[in-house]
Write a structure and sequence with these properties.
- There is one protein chain.
- A hairpin with a 4-residue loop joins strand 21 and strand 22.
- The relative contact order is 0.14.
- The protein has strands spanning 2-5, 8-14, 24-32, 39-44, 50-54, 59-63, 69-74, 81-86, 92-96, 101-105, 112-116, 126-131, 137-141, 145-150, 155-160, 167-172, 178-182, 187-189, 210-215, 221-225, 230-235, 240-245, 253-258, 264-268, 273-278, 283-288, 296-302, 305-310, 315-324.
- The strands form seven sheets. The protein has a five-stranded antiparallel sheet with strand order 1-7-6-5-4, with no helix packed on it. A five-stranded antiparallel sheet has the order 2-3-29-28-27, with no helix packed on it.
- The chain has 326 residues and is an all-beta fold.
């Protein structure tokens, strides 16, 4: 494994709300990773470290925020890791488009285990993954598939997605259900956990391009809509949508994450910023990157922290929030 001492840049700032005066102080900190890794997805681990997928280098990186050190785990020849999450077992689980496999990296030993997709599902372009309430990992492939792996038995099921190409973001609800979205197909879907059947749910605007999805504490899926530059939430019992356009002239909503207080975070590529949305006040707060073309493709968090992967700058970024303003 390689070890890299990351340089750390810290900026303490008052969050400048786009629509209201700031009421909290937020700390923004950047961590450099090895040049050329091009971090795509990021996942904070229970021990305080942070995993990231080095998509360009075919590695899984692990940052220690206390020291800035980065350790890298090679995933194999032709690896091109896209998504990473922390599973119920504490391990890092990777959806690897280059290997066309689901990959597990042990948190203690860094041992790598692979579950390849069936041979007739070559080139699935695996994207992201989430665990359901029964410990099975669900995944999407942008070439037109979604699937489920039971790590305990090795059983893998892969289904054709409605409308062909496009499945991208995926999330689990607090109750253990699964939702995913299709970028090219422009829909939201909730698979039956046992037989895999899905029925597309269309967002309010046709062709809005749902890219990522994340569930709040009530199990409602929040969707970042790339083509429309909007943030939407779907209420399953009411079968109703609400939609808000991101600030700016031409926003593009890429990643979305809902924190422990049900605040919603979205990354905006043209705005070169991470944006926080308060569903109660319906106000946005922007956190622009200090470098151009940050391109935050995914975000995850833990209490008091929002982590993102700046794929364009070879850095990870953390926003520590909820502190009283001085």
């Amino acid at each position: 494994m390689d070890q890299h001492h990351a340089r750390v840049f810290t900026a303490i700032l008052l969050a400048a709300s786009l629509l209201a005066p700031p009421v909290i102080a937020d700390e923004v900190q950047y961590y450099e990773v090895p040049k050329g890794d091009r971090p795509h997805d990021v996942a904070p681990a229970p021990d305080g470290t942070v995993w990231y997928t080095g998509q360009r280098a075919g590695v899984l990186g692990r940052l220690d925020p206390k020291t800035g050190d980065v350790k890298r785990v090679p995933l194999g020849d032709h690896s091109k890791p896209h998504g990473v999450i922390v599973g119920p077992d504490g391990a890092a689980w990777v959806s690897d488009s280059g290997l066309n496999a689901i990959v597990r990296v042990d948190a203690k030993t860094q041992a790598v285990q692979q579950w390849p997709l069936p041979k007739d599902r070559a080139g699935a372009n695996l994207n992201t993954a989430a665990f359901d309430g029964k410990g099975r990992i669900w995944f999407t492939g942008q070439e037109g598939i979604y699937g489920r792996l039971d790590p305990a038995t090795g059983d893998m099921q892969v289904w054709d997605a409605p409308r062909g190409r496009g499945p991208y973001g995926i999330t689990a609800t607090p109750g253990g259900d699964i939702w995913f979205v299709s970028l090219a197909g422009s829909y939201l879907a909730k698979p039956d956990l046992e037989i895999g059947v899905v029925l597309p749910i269309d967002p309010p605007k046709k062709g809005s391009g749902p890219r990522r999805v994340w569930a709040d504490s009530a199990g409602r899926p929040w969707v970042s809509e790339w083509n429309a530059g909007t943030l939407s939430v779907y209420d399953p019992p009411k079968k109703m949508w609400q939609t808000w356009r991101l600030p700016g002239e031409d926003p593009r909503a890429y990643a979305v994450f809902v924190d422990e207080a049900d605040k919603v975070w979205v990354s905006d590529f043209p705005g070169n910023a991470i944006v926080r949305f308060d569903p109660v006040s319906e106000k946005f707060t922007s956190f622009p990157s200090d470098r151009e073309h940050a391109d935050v493709r995914q975000m995850l968090g833990r209490k008091g922290e929002l982590w993102g992967a700046e794929s364009g700058t070879d850095r990870l970024v953390v926003i520590r929030y909820g502190k009283p303003a001085p």
